[in-house]
Amino acid sequence: xxxxxxxxxxxxxxxDDSSRAKFxxxxxxxxxxxxxxxxxxxxxxxxxxEKECRIIGITSSIRGEGKSTTSSNLAYSxxxxxxxxxxxxxxxxxxxxxxxxxMSQSPGLxxxxxxxxxxxxxxxxxxxxxxxxxxxxxxxxxxxxxxxSSRRMSATxxxxxxxxxxxxxxLPPIDAVSDxxxxxxxxxxMIVVTRQNYVDKRALKSAMNQLKxxxxxxxxxxxxxxxxxxxxxxKRYGSYARGxxxxxxxxx
Length: 252
What we know:
Elements: H1 30-44, E1 54-60, H2 67-80, E2 85-89, H3 97-100, H4 109-113, E3 124-126, E4 129-135, H5 144-148, H6 151-161, E5 166-170, H7 179-183, E6 189-195, H8 201-213, E7 218-224, H9 231-242
Parallel strand pairs: 1-5, 1-6, 2-4, 2-5, 6-7
Antiparallel strand pairs: 3-4
Helix pairs in contact: 1-2
């Protein structure tokens, strides 16, 4: 597994807890929308058969690299092109998706996997797009690893695959816990999110080694918080920055 896998996108907002929703969908500026569309296109070309539901995991090596923002906008981008999309917050230790979409954390995935909910009220729609549904992380539990590795988790994804075109899982960072690696066997591919001038090279190398050891199909990297006024990216995004479209932050 080479470390020079293709970079799928290079634009994302930074952390701003007071207004996370402004970093999703139509609230993004032109450059950001185009970056996520390119990411969507590259993901689509990673698979030969578009008729089958694809389950994609999004992770990072460490916390704070923008994986939840990337998960949310990739899901929205697929919904925008007419795909029926389900976004699952599988980071039950430090969930963010419910904050981004301004909804309650519970009931959610943990409630379903623990058997305390029958699932009828787990999948929720969002005002952002009619084709986008969300399963939040649910109540905080002491054993997320056990829940994610359970037969109920695999059965749940199998059932949901018959109802959606794309399922995206927002997963915990690899160097923090083993959750993403445990779920990897249920995925068609994994996207690794990194953040410019933030990612720890040793942590990223460790994460890639673990993914390789588990034979995970890594689709590529997303690079967040790129300085659009620097070198190559200045040529691509400089005019949008001058036009008032520039931004530079990301949530995770």
